[in-house]
Amino acid sequence: MLVPLVLLALGAVFAGFAFHHQFIDGEEFWAGSIAFDADLIHAMHEVPLLVKLSATIAMLAGLAIAWGAYIRNPGWPAAFVAQFGVLYRFVHNKWYFDELYHWLLVKPAFRIGRWFWKGGDEGTIDRFGPNGFAWAVQLGSRGAVRLQSGYLNSYALVMLVGLVGAVSWVIAR
Amino acid sequence: MSGFPILSLMLLVPLVGAIACLVTSAQAARWIALLTTLAELALGIVLWANYDIGGAQWQFTERANLFAGMQWALGIDGIALLLIVLTVFLMPICIGASWLSIESRVGEYMASFLLMETLMIGVFVAQDLFLFYIFFEAGLIPMYLIIGIWGGRDRIYASYKFFLYTLLGSVLMLIAMFWMANEAGTTDIPTLMAYDFPPGAQTWLWLAFFASFAVKLPMWPVHTWLPDAHVQAPTAGSVILAGVLLKMGGYGFIRFSLPMFPEASAQLAWLIFALSMVAVVYTSLVALVQHDMKKLIAYSSVAHMGIVTVGLFAFNRQGLEGAMVVMLSHGLVSGALFLSVGVIYDRLHTREIDRYGGLSINMPHYALFFMLFTMASIGLPGTSGFVGEFLALAGIYQLSSWVTAVCATGVILGAAYMLYLYWRVAFGIQRNPDAAAMPDLDKREWAMMAPIAAAVLWMGVYPESFIAPMRQDIAALDARLAQARPQGDAKLALGKTRPAVAEHEEVH
Predict the structure, then answer these.
(1) A32 touches chain B (CB under 8 A)
(2) Using CB atoms within 10 A of its CB, is residue A50 exposed (0-12), middle (13-18) or buried (19+)?
(3) Which domain holds residue B415?
(4) Is A25 on the interface with B (CB under 8 A)?
(5) B317 part of a folded domain
(6) Which of A31, A113, B75, B255 could disulfide-link to B61, CB 3.0 to 4.6 Å?
(7) Which of B159, B215, B275, B288 to mutate to test the interface with A (most CBs of A within 10 A)?
(8) What is the pLDDT of residues B360-403, one digit of tens each?
């Protein structure tokens, strides 16, 4: 693990020196792929010095706290946790963002998905679509089977009724 | 190459192989099928190598008169070429996936697959309206047999659902084709693509074709045959179903609906957008709650096809090219995902996600491939999925920012359900001792996975290889659609900020 860390540390410190020329002064590297607003860039140059140093200040503050908590006085973190329990738990649980996400996004997504699946796909589309058609066809054929009784006299009756109906329609028209 | 009937040969070779498979023993049938599909792959490579990019729109054309005005008319453009290459690329892999898992009626199984290959290629090369219809519809038969005979427990229900759903839509398309042939006096597809049908009739014709392609693609709400068919089909059946058969719907839109009925396409684009937006969100959420791996991937296919349809109806080049790349990418990626499911299904004979877990410990190579295809399905930059989805969404953004916003959630939800699947299968503790004892990929499975992985990365890193053949055809289609292009809501304008170099030079 040491070798990769050393390589990464070297890169972190020196990559800026190595590629400074190519990235910032060179024109062929970006080949027109980035654009900037000249006014904005000029305005950025004119911010107070403190703004430019803010990252360094934050880094130094972190360094000082780390040195205090882990080297000078190792008992300090435990004492802090004991004193500021609520704050510690809030930060330790990442501001409860995971719980918030779970409650706000994950659970509703699963509930809606299950509802779409069971209620939508299976309960509505399949039920009234293909399965509904199959059911209707089955019902129809069962009815048709009942009509085909095989008795000649009932067929003759249907023919007679149809004939009488047709003739009366022609006469009545 | 001129004059040599390579397209007819590509239709003939699998047919001969299919007949040979029917009359030999099981092991011989496997080898015949593999060699036939490899020969077909070689022919596909020859076809691509000889395709003249920037040349004539229709190449390798063949014309022979058949009875009653029907023509044996073949020919391809760049769009068809890429889909043919996708087909012949996936077929040997499908045969490999069936090598051990199919034990009964091997000869008939291989014959069905080879017949399927003929019919799929036929769909993409046909230049006669009715020849297209025959290939398009006949493709149902071998797939119906593959699901119905070699499928899982509920195979009969799934195969009937698949067949009837698809047939119902296609009958309306046939009626529309008769009307078109009567009106235009020809069944030649290139001629029809330039024919201006009366706008009033276009609407009805468009709806008739839509009925067929929407089922095939599939679009919400006529998608419910797909999860059932995928779950019941054998692994190779799922691969070819997701890889190529779904693309026939997209191909239909791009070959028929858009160029033949541009006014109706513009007029009814709202319908496509509405259904696609519902599909993307709805099926992504349904995919999230699935317990069955194949069903999850099937639902994710519907969501991806939603992005294809919005791209197609964006009426601009990014949208059309993006839709095509999504189709090609999805053909590879979803095929590979079904293979990944097949690999572990062959070992444990279950598709339940909960029965697996921690596979990256005992199957590291498998986990690596599965990870790559998962990322490609999500659309990670560097994989094929990103190129297509980005282009398609960039295309539709010019037309409607709302449609883009809704469809872009599909990318986020895609990450949610695919990573959730991958986490449950490959990471975590090894919950089940039998799953923990599964061996890693063998040589045959390596030979199936590695080519697809290479193609996915190739398409992701250098998509130009795949966009170049179709660029001219997309431009022609774009020009054809220009007369009907709707006004967009984005009103994109060039920014005042100029590239850094230009700015830099002016200051100094």
Answers:
(1) yes
(2) exposed
(3) 268-508
(4) no
(5) yes
(6) B75
(7) B288
(8) 888 999 999 999 999 999 989 989 989 999 999 999 998 888 89
